[in-house]
Amino acid sequence: MNYNINSGGLVCEADGNLLLADLRHYSGTRLLTATSEEKAHLDGMFWFMNRAGDDIYYSDQLQGNRLYRMNLSTQSVERIQDRPCYGLALSGDWLYYKSEIDHKLYRCLLNGRNESRVTDEPVECFVVEGEQVYYATQQGIRSCDVTGKDREQLSESVAMHMIKIGDTLIFADSKNQYQLTALHLETGEARTYADVSPNSLNSDGRYVYCANRNNDSSVYRVDLDTGNKIRICGERADHIHILGNIIYFSSGFEWYKMSLNGGQAEKVITF
Which residues neighbour 66 within 8 Å (Cβ) at sequence distance 6 or greater? Predict the structure, then answer.
């Protein structure tokens, strides 16, 4: 489960080390090591960071959004795919991504080989789980297998920031004032949560956390079962990431962190 990709994949943890993309100056990415106060500067502007062992896969915004791999131990960097990509997500031995050229969904192996197109139409956002892909288009939410076969229309909603929890797709519905919506896949029933319109969305597997545009993009926690909504942080937030029991988010182009239970947000680093 890595819902951080939906928020840009701008924060990544690896063996206690923390990688943070510089949103203020767009100068690159900082590596905060677990063993010292040292803050290493990495030249690439890492978006959609995915970790696989000692490797980080990412779209480098300073290199035309091309797909790269960096080894954390050696900090060696290799371009593995020349296609400009967006929304990079790792699942098994495959990387899935939207093309910045035609906005359709593609996949390739971790070495960049065997690239193939998964969808015939442009995709807004997507979720890969096992052998199934769920994706949103301007014509609605659809599903297919990972090769693009067995396509099925699931809903006419136009989803943004889509994630999947159990048998439910969670998203902001752009056809309904971006309201938080839960689509139950088995029944096809959709439930909306009034007064919550996410512009960033994440989950710890139990609750949904979002920056609520209906309340100055402050951070809310939503219980999908009961419908209870609690504002847990009054700061204006974007790019909400969850690592363990900590929320990381950007505010004023700086990175902050706080407990999942709420409280005072603390600045992580000043760029």
Answer: 59, 60, 79, 81, 82, 83, 84, 85
For residue 208, the model assigns a pLDDT of: 97
The answer to whether 92 and 126 have CB atoms below 8 angstroms apart is no
Structure tokens given for 110: 């971790």
What are phi and psi for residue 144, nearest 5 degrees? -160, 170
Q: How many CA atoms lie within 13 A of 190 on its CB side?
A: 17
State which amino acid sits at residue 72: L
pLDDT in tens, 161-176: 999 999 999 999 999 9
Burial 219-231 (b: 16+ CB within 10 A, else e): bbbbebeeeebee
- Could you read off the pLDDT of 123-150 as tens digits, one per residue? 999 999 999 999 999 999 999 999 999 9
Residues ≥6 apart with Cβ < 8 Å to 197: 172, 177, 178, 179, 180, 212, 213, 214
Residues 6+ apart with CB under 8 A from 69: 55, 56, 57, 58, 77, 78, 80, 110
